[in-house]
Amino acid sequence: MNKLFKMKLLVLLISSVIFLGACSSSKEARNDRHKINGKWQLKTISSEGISGTTKSILFDEAELSCFIESTWTFNQNNSLGSYTFNGTGENCGSLKRDIRWSIFEAAGEEPLFQFKRLDSKLKNIDESGGGYRFSIIQIDNSTMKLKSNFTFEGKPAAFIYNFVKI
Description:
The protein is α+β, with helices and mostly antiparallel strands. Helices cover 21% and strands 45% of the residues. It has a single domain (27-165), classed as Lipocalin (Beta Barrel). The strands form two sheets. It has an eight-stranded antiparallel β-barrel. A two-stranded antiparallel sheet has the order 2-3. The longest helix has 21 residues, at 3-23.
């Protein structure tokens, strides 16, 4: 092989390694994906920055109370999952919603859990490709705590989602 060909091959190999390294997820994100994998129950949802009670619709789907005791499944192999509730709360029907989930990583920030709702053909149903992102407050092999921030009456607020593995 001539020198020019060897040089081009070396540049191509180095570029490939850099590209593949940039696309891979961090060790922390891979560990979080592994811990999230499985079946969970959403036990409680608490709020920060909201005094009193409020009626909230979560994920453009149903009232907050409908999600208490809901079952969530996450499959790390294909990034699909679902959430299901059985109409136990007031004004709640039964629902099973497919989702696609992942760990979102932005440079210099903590990883975020995110999901998008899917239709029966596994196509995104949220407008403009949207979805939902949550700070991962705590996760281990049996409990998970996620936080979603929003603005309520012009002030910062949040919901805290407390899951247990089942």
